[in-house]
Design a protein that fits this description.
Blueprint: H1 18-28, H2 31-36, E1 41-42, E2 53-54, E3 57-58, H3 75-80, H4 84-104, E4 112-116, H5 136-151, E5 163-167, E6 180-181, H6 185-201, E7 207-210, E8 214-215, E9 218-219, H7 225-228, E10 239-240, H8 246-252, H9 260-270, H10 283-294, H11 300-316, H12 337-344, H13 350-362, E11 365-369, E12 382-385, H14 407-415, E13 420-423, E14 427-432, E15 438-440, E16 473-475, E17 481-487, E18 490-494, E19 500-503, E20 509-513, E21 525-530, E22 533-538, E23 543-548, E24 551-554, E25 585-592, H15 594-603, E26 607-613, H16 633-645, E27 649-654, E28 668-672, H17 679-688, H18 722-725, E29 743-745, E30 749-753, E31 756-765, E32 771-781, E33 792-801, E34 806-814, E35 820-822, E36 827-829, E37 833-840, E38 846-854, E39 862-863, H19 864-867, E40 869-870, E41 876-878, E42 880-884, E43 891-895, E44 901-909, E45 916-923, E46 926-931, E47 936-940, E48 952-957, E49 970-978, E50 981-989
Parallel strand pairs: 3-4, 4-5, 5-7, 6-8, 7-10, 12-13, 12-26, 26-27, 27-28, 39-44
Antiparallel strand pairs: 1-2, 8-9, 11-28, 14-17, 14-25, 15-16, 17-18, 19-20, 21-22, 22-23, 22-25, 23-24, 29-31, 30-31, 31-34, 32-33, 32-37, 35-36, 37-38, 40-50, 41-44, 42-43, 44-49, 45-48, 45-50, 46-47, 46-49
Helix pairs in contact: 1-11, 4-5, 4-13, 5-6, 8-9, 9-10, 13-17, 14-17, 15-16
């Protein structure tokens, strides 16, 4: 007798709604299994046939960390295309490759951690390459497009599940896990939240990742905005994944909680659903969660909520419906099985290669052109010089290259190698020891070169350096090394065969790296003057290089007096026979001067292309902010040498961020981000005129460091940051980019129709070549009651036009596009009045304008007798920062360290007047209140110091007011804060 087939559990029934299936599965999981699901690496539940799962697959501009994949331009380069439809196709290609790679390597995850929507507020941020733009609308438009491509277009199942990074107000690597971003309500809503909100509301986002930093004194991993904002924007279940190690930071570096049990409980209650901590070892986090549950810090219902959100993503990815998932090869109702099978083979396809080139071409921005470009018809001889001329650089979030295109290779291909001469411009050097020997690189075996990360790794930070090659030695014959100066004293040394000197875990120097890279870069050094020579300090370990009997190595930890970068003379170095026991003093012998080589090549050419920029792993990257906008000094020297030798010099900047350069005597300047596998071909085609450039700057290029605010100053309104508020003259403005064609803009019309404003104008290609134009529309409040942007992007469109062709551009703008966050009422408001609409080719190149009058909602004074004043809801401030009211929610204001602070509140309505003021404060110090520019009316000070979270309510008469009538009417309220005091709010009564 055959045993009856057990019934299919409801969670396996594809005909039921996901919510019911998740309810069923949750009811079947034990508490232990549910807690286990809260770590990044969720174990399998074999008794239910549920596979293991992990959150997190990096996919910022291609599948990263898992070996070879199609590499598209960096995110800032995709932002420079200003082309959402192109970026959607890039996202689709990345998601197809993710599925294809997972089909052969189960380590590849489908919960992708991309895109990064942090706004490029400050160009010195080390991770500038990861964002799209300084503008929230452009950022959200590009992010929405990328997530739609990643998600796929099936109504039920998702190809991949994108998670937005990094929530919230995160633009500094300096003290990134302990620094707090002080973000006033207007900046929070109008700037930082807006980029996230628009993308989430578009419906293709599976979740977010909180950032390492704190906002208003509270770590993002316990941010109340996850509940109060994020999860109110959509009915979808959103998965919140912690950043790596951030849960432990709450105790270890931030000291926000006393115990790890309190920290994980607070994070989960705030909205974190998946804990990325301690790598693949889930036992630590699981142990902390179990202890938190035992201590009553968590409930099982709260754990269920987090598990539910993770399961929601897994169901949408088709994990439980192998026969229905259109992307997994099983086919689905209405979707042919072949479509899913196609994803299994959608890796390095001709279409993806062509798309990578198209994206790289569209990302090139022509900053200046006095007629030197395009180069076609081909000049007789082109000199290609510079540190980036024969490079195709990757960044931390790149896959390994399958195809590689450099500017030199692209120009060889376009013009022929016989017309192109290459000079890198590096110094060639020998390093001689104090004993007279030379550093020597032993020959490498004939084995294939090893490319870092080619095999893939769940955590590439753990990849070790090579130890299979012989270390450097010192002997009578030296090896000529290419000394590449990346600025700020940081350099790399490269052997003649192209391998970089690197230090492995055993401390020996080897010529072993294909490129500088890794979480801690092991290929960078500093030359420090010492006596009559130089010490060679390895940056990664911080130790000096020494010569020993068995090879060249860095000194053992604590084995030397290493001095400091500022005072290398403090080092006790060995000399002669004693050198083996101490840092070596090297004589630097220059065998070829790079600057002179560039000048010779430039003088013999018709046109010079100087390719300058950065290595994404050096001087500006994750964990390291830049210190200046200036081009590295050595590259500036090479540029000037080329220009002095040949006036027909083109500067091509290939970089992850803006530079402050002097373009005055340069006839042509271009910029592109590191453009992925097709970068060189794309740049060459633009230089030659095969493609007319149409990239546009996604962020302001400032002229000098003095134009920048402090790196940790997040008040874009008060400190006049980004194109929205910057009142100076930029080097190149937001939205700038030139073309080989010319474009005329026709009459701009605008009219309000109900809840929208309809705007239209025409664009005509008046040039002689087909070209793209990016039509940009900005708005400006003509007579605002509060500081508003000088101009604000509300719409844009990239157009492709043949010579003589005209296109009509129509935008339907919702009235919300004209709104601002009114701190007086705590919500969005469209102010009545006139608004200027500006259409043109950049934020400053306005071709047509008109004005529209909107009815809006009139402002009303703050009713302070009824509502009081929240301290963080100020209109102006000086010398203060916003901090946390409690560890769970709310804001307070405190004087910045060592300063006296002031808060100003405009148009406060006291009605018939007030005679008493109250203040909720903690700590110690004083609050002084005055109206308008009058005298101090009250001073409030706590009787004794208190804990920062132990607030007291102080009362004081408005003594100088005399009677209520003295304060009657509408006034400006000024509050002066002194000492280590936190002010949450003030109230008034008659």
């Amino acid at each position: 007798m055959t045993a009856p087939t057990p019934p299919t559990p409801p969670f396996r029934d594809p005909h039921l709604p996901f919510a019911k299936r998740i309810d069923d599965l949750l009811s079947r999981l034990t508490l232990e299994e549910k807690i286990g699901a809260l770590h990044q690496f969720t174990p399998a539940v074999e008794r239910l046939g549920i596979a293991a799962f992990r959150t997190g697959q990096e996919a910022l501009h291609g599948v990263a960390w898992m070996g070879p994949a199609t590499v598209f331009p960096q995110a800032v380069g995709l932002g420079a295309t200003w082309n959402p439809e192109l970026v959607r196709r890039v996202g689709e290609a990345v998601s197809r490759e993710t599925r294809a790679m997972r089909a052969r390597d189960e380590r590849v995850g489908l919960n992708v951690w991309a895109p990064t929507v942090n706004l490029l507020r400050h160009p010195l941020w080390g991770r500038n390459e990861e964002g799209y733009s300084e503008d929230p609308r452009l950022t959200s438009a590009i992010a929405t497009a990328y997530t739609r491509g990643l998600r796929g277009d099936h109504p039920v199942y998702w190809r991949t599940a994108p998670v937005l990074k990094h929530w919230l107000a995160h633009n500094n690597e300096t003290a990134r896990d302990t620094a707090s971003s002080s973000v006033r309500p207007r900046v929070l809503h109008e700037y930082d939240l807006r980029a996230f909100r628009d993308a989430v509301e578009a419906g293709a986002v599976a979740g977010v990742m909180p950032a390492y930093n704190l906002v208003n004194g509270r770590p993002n991993h316990v941010s109340p905005y996850l509940r109060e904002q994020l999860r109110t924007w959509t009915e979808e279940e959103l998965l919140v994944c912690s950043d790596a190690g951030a849960p432990s930071n709450l105790v270890d570096s931030e000291h926000y909680f006393d115990t790890h049990e309190e920290a994980v409980a607070a994070s989960l209650r705030a909205g974190v659903d998946s804990f990325t901590d301690h790598g693949t070892d889930s036992s630590v986090i699981v142990g902390r969660l179990e202890a938190a549950l035992r201590q009553g810090l968590l409930t099982e219902a709260e754990i269920d909520g987090a598990v539910r959100r993770q399961l929601s993503v897994r169901f949408r990815l088709g994990e439980f419906d192998p026969g229905e998932d259109p992307y997994g090869g099983g086919g689905s109702g209405g979707v042919p099985q072949a479509e899913g099978l196609a994803d299994e083979h959608a890796f390095d396809t001709p279409e993806h290669r062509a798309l990578a080139q198209e994206a790289a071409e569209q990302a090139v921005v022509l900053l200046k052109n006095d007629g030197l470009l395009p180069l076609a018809p081909a000049p007789a001889r082109v000199a290609v010089v510079g540190l980036l001329a024969d490079e195709c650089k990757l960044d931390w979030y790149s896959g390994a290259l399958i195809h590689r295109s450099t500017p030199l290779g692209g120009l060889y291909e376009r013009f022929g190698a016989e017309r192109v001469e290459f000079t890198e411009g590096v110094d060639r050097v020998l390093l001689r020891t104090s004993a007279g020997a030379f550093l020597h690189v032993p020959p490498a075996p004939d084995s294939p070169d090893e490319v870092r990360g080619a095999a893939g790794a769940l955590d590439p930070a753990l990849l070790a350096g090579r130890t299979d090659l012989a270390p450097l030695t010192a002997g009578p014959e030296g090896t000529e090394l290419a000394l590449v100066d990346w600025g700020e004293g940081v350099l790399t040394l490269r052997a003649p065969d192209g391998r970089y000197l690197s230090v492995a875990e055993d401390g020996y120097l080897r010529a072993s790296a294909d490129q500088p890279g890794g979480w801690v870069v092991q290929e960078t050094f500093r030359l420090e003057p010492h006596g009559g020579g130089h010490l060679l300090r390895h940056v990664g370990t911080g130790r000096h290089v020494q010569v020993t009997a068995d090879g060249v190595k860095v000194a053992a930890e604590n084995a030397e007096n290493t001095g400091s970068a500022e005072n290398p003379e403090e080092v006790t170095a060995g000399e002669g026979p004693a050198a083996a026991s101490g840092p070596e003093v090297f004589e630097l012998i220059v065998t070829e001067n790079g600057e002179e080589a560039v000048a010779r090549a430039a003088a013999q050419a018709d046109v010079v292309v100087v390719v300058a920029g950065n290595d994404p792993h050096i001087n500006g990257r994750e964990t390291e902010d830049r210190t200046t906008l200036r081009l590295p000094a050595q590259q500036e020297l090479l540029l000037r040498a080329a220009r002095a030798a040949n006036p027909n010099t083109v500067l091509a900047l290939v970089s992850a961020y803006p530079y402050a350069i002097d373009p005055t005597d340069l006839p042509a300047v271009l910029w592109t981000a590191h453009g992925g596998q097709a970068a060189g071909t794309a740049l060459a085609r633009v230089l030659a005129g095969d493609v007319s450039p149409a990239g546009r700057l996604p962020q302001t290029w400032y002229a000098k460091d003095a134009d920048l605010p402090g790196l940790l100053d997040y008040d874009v309104i008060g400190s006049r940051q980004t194109y929205l508020y910057f009142e100076g003259t930029p080097l190149f403005p937001f939205g700038h980019g030139l073309s080989y064609a010319a474009f005329a803009y026709g009459e701009l019309t605008a009219r309000a129709e109900g809840r929208t404003v309809r705007v239209s104008f025409t664009v005509t290609n008046t040039g002689a070549v087909p070209a793209d134009e990016v039509a940009q529309l900005y708005t400006r409040a003509v007579d605002p009651s509060v500081p508003r942007p000088l101009r604000e992007l509300v719409a844009h469109r990239r157009l492709t036009l043949a010579p003589g062709e005209t296109a009509e551009v129509v935008f339907e703008l919702p009235l919300s596009a004209f709104a601002f966050w009114d701190v007086a009422v705590g919500r969005w408001r469209v102010e009545p009045g006139r608004y200027e609409l500006l259409a043109g080719a950049s934020s400053t190149d306005v071709r047509q304008s008109t004005t529209v009058t909107l009815d809006g909602e009139p402002s009303v004074p703050r009713a302070v007798l009824e509502h009081g004043l929240d301290a963080a809801g100020y209109d102006e401030q000086r010398g203060t920062e916003i901090v946390d009211r409690t560890r769970e929610s709310g804001d307070a204001v405190t004087p910045a360290a060592g300063q006296e602070g002031e808060l100003v509140f405009w148009r406060c309505d006291f009605g018939e007047g007030a005679t008493e003021v109250t203040a909720e404060v903690s700590g110690e110090g004083s609050v002084e209140l005055s109206l308008d520019d009058g005298p101090v009316l009250a001073t409030l000070s706590p009787a004794a110091p208190s804990d920062p979270y132990d607030y007291v309510t102080l009362e004081a008469p408005l003594a100088r007011a005399g009677t209520p009538a003295a304060t009657a009417g509408v006034h400006q309220v000024r509050l002066r804060l002194r000492g280590a005091l936190r002010l949450a709010r003030v109230g008034f009564s008659g």
